[in-house]
Amino acid sequence: MNIVLIGFMGSGKTTVGKALANNLKFSFLDTDEYIEERAGMKISDIFATQGEKYFRELERSILGELTDRDHTVIATGGGLPLIEENRKRLKKIGKVIYLSANEQTLWKHLEGDCSRPLLAGENPRKKIQELLLERIPIYRQASDYCIEVDNRCIDGITKEIEKIVKSA
Ligand code: S3P
Fold first, then answer.
1. Contact 157, 149 (CB under 8 A)
2. How far is it, in rounded angstroms, from Cα 26 to Cα 122?
3. Which of 118, 134, 149 to mutate to test the pocket of ligand 1 (most atoms within 8 A of CB)?
4. 76, 100, 116, best to mutate for ligand 1 pocket (most atoms within 8 Å of CB)
5. What is the DSSP string of 49-75?
């Protein structure tokens, strides 16, 4: 039994995931951190030196290693569910929970952030809007449950996920 958190950058997957793992006495794994450890490089440097395609290949490849995990909360990079093969794998790995945040919430968390290469251009807010349009249907399709996180505290969100998991 695992819990997989998906959603846009800045939706709180890592923060919620850590709190959830702590409450449930599960392990915690963040795919971005895992990739950075493996590559010995920050994600922004992977994008800058090897490109996004290479990063997506790393995501695809590490996902294959997570199939034998148990009692783990896995926080995924925001772009990981864009690939169909990844979506299928996520569903096999565990209950997939989409942390759904609106554009204002995301901007509050992402404004001034320098760690996300996809938002490094001239108009990061517009980029968020464009990516959201493209990705919301994919996140919905990839998930078993959708949780709205706007204006909510971490504790409330984790409690809701715990309830879902316990009744599943
Ligand atoms: C990305 C999200 C990031 C990271 C990379 C690409 C995306 O992870 O994987 O910068 O395509 O949405 P977070 O969602 O943890 O920020």
1. yes
2. 40
3. 118
4. 116
5. HH-HHHHHHHHHHHHHTTTT--SEEEE
Report the b/e string of 21-55 with b at 16+ CB within 10 A.
beebebebbbbbebbbeebeeebeebbeeeeeeeb
> Residue 3's beta-bridge partner residues?
73, 95
Tens of pLDDT, residues 94-127: 999 999 999 999 999 999 999 999 999 999 999 9
* CB of 44 sitting under 6 A from ligand 1: no
Q: What is the pTM of this model?
A: 0.98
> Does the Cβ of 7 fall within 6 Å of ligand 1?
no
Domains, the chain, with CATH or none: 3-160 (3.40.50.300)
Is-contact 37 48, C-beta < 8 A? no
